[in-house]
Amino acid sequence: MFACSCMERRYRTLRFKVKKYLKSEKRKNTWMGRCLSSEIFDERYWLWRKHSVAVGAGWGAASAIAPVPMQSFWGIAACLWKKGNIPVAVFMAWLSPPGFIVVAVPLQWWLGWWILRVLGFDGSGASISMLKEVVTGIADNFFLAPLDGVNYWMFGVEFSLGVILSCSLLGVLCYGLTYGIWSLVDWWKSRLHADDVSGKEN
Known about the structure:
Blueprint: H1 2-28, H2 31-35, H3 50-64, H4 71-82, H5 86-93, H6 101-118, H7 128-140, H8 152-201
C-alpha cells in the first residue's frame, strides 16, 4: 500500500516536471514545441487510473516492437486516439533495447510466414538467415542483395502480417497484465482496509 502511494506521488512529480518542460518548449517556439499539440496537455491523457494506465502500457508496448522510427510518437498518437496515459506509453516504447530490430524483424517476418504457410499460401522464398544479413547490412550500408530471387510482394505480406500480429499480441498482453495487476493491488488494499475496520470494531 505504501509502495503504491509512493509510486503515485513520484508519478505526479514527474508529470509536473514534464508538463512544465513541454510548455516551455512551446513558448520558445522550437521545432519540438511546434510539433506538440495542446491536446497532449489535457488531463485525460495524464490520469493515474487503471484503464488509462493499462491503455498507455498496451499502446506503448505495441509501438516498442514496431519497425517504425520514433516509436514514442506512435504511442502518444494512439493514446490521443484511445485516451491512454501518455507518460506510460512513452516509457513502454523506450523499453526496446538498441539493436532489438536485428532480432525483431526476422522474428516478425517468420511469424507472418508461418501463419500463411499454415493457411496454405505459397511462401516468398525468404529465410531467417537472409533477413539477418539484410538487417545487419542496413546498419552499415543499405542493401538488399541477400533477398535476390525473393517474391517481394509475398515477402511484404508475410512481414506486414507478422508485424501486425506481434504488435497486437504484445499490446493486448501488456494491457491485460497492467489491468490485472492493478485490480489485484486494489483488491489487496480493500482487504487490508476491511481487516483494519474489523480489527477496530473488535
